[in-house]
Specification:
Radius of gyration: 22 Å
Distance between the termini: 58 Å
Protein name: HTH-type transcriptional regulator PrtR
Structural class: alpha+beta
CATH topology of the largest domain: Umud Fragment, subunit A
GO biological process, one term: proteolysis
Shape: elongated
GO molecular function, one term: serine-type endopeptidase activity
GO cellular component, one term: membrane
Number of domains: 2
Number of helices: 6
Keywords: DNA-binding, Hydrolase, Protease, Transcription, Transcription regulation
């Protein structure tokens, strides 16, 4: 039977990690848990099963100082909107932790990436732009938001108005429209999050 250090080495090989903190992060446990394993000289069998599954799926930790962000293939419309069929996570994109925490100042657990479809937010957002969305449950001030209204998922600039919210397109070819207070509180309207970053081809 392998001793505890040999077992930890096996887990690190399966998860493609080299240190105990990285191993804990990969397995979704606290560093103290690994210390407890060493104290008890035993690692639960389910941990090895999880590590083996991760290895078979090709999962690995990003380099130190970087993190994975969820990416959703479902495009948000920057035109007149499109019916949302699914929003299933498709892959991951890696970003610098320093950039997320210090430059953007958002919680990494609350952000994800989505592509933009359409030209109504041009020149701020081009067709095909990638937007980083910070999940919020409600309007928190004027800005660009991803929201769902009447079955459509859209990205627009939302501004406070006396009647509710003004929905503004940065492209002057698109007219501004209003969301009433009644519409905002209805089941047809839901704020998904606020756009905090975008990337696009020049």
């Amino acid at each position: 039977m392998k001793n505890i250090n040999e077992q930890l080495a096996e887990l690190k090989g399966l998860t493609k990690t080299t240190t105990n903190p990285d191993l804990a992060k990969a397995l979704g446990v606290s560093p103290k848990t690994i210390y407890t394993w060493k104290e008890r000289d035993k690692i639960p069998e389910k941990i090895f099963l999880k590590a083996q599954q991760m290895s078979s799926l090709g999962e690995a930790l990003p380099p130190t100082g970087y993190m994975k962000l969820d990416f959703y293939e479902q495009a948000v419309s920057a035109g007149y909107g499109e019916l949302v069929i699914s929003e299933e996570k498709s892959s991951d994109i890696i970003f610098s932790e320093s950039f997320i925490n210090n430059e953007l100042g958002v919680n990494p657990k609350h952000i994800f990436l989505m592509p933009v479809k359409g030209d109504s937010m041009y020149p701020t957002l081009k067709n095909g732009s990638l937007v980083m969305v910070n999940r919020v449950e409600q309007y928190s001030g004027d800005g660009i938001y991803v929201f769902r209204f009447d079955g459509q998922l859209m990205v627009k600039r939302l501004q406070f108005s006396k009647n509710g919210l003004s929905v503004v397109s940065d492209n002057s070819n698109y007219e501004k429209w209003e969301l009433s207070k009644e519409e905002i509180t209805s089941n047809d309207f839901e704020i998904i999050g606020e756009v905090v970053w975008s990337g696009q081809r020049m």
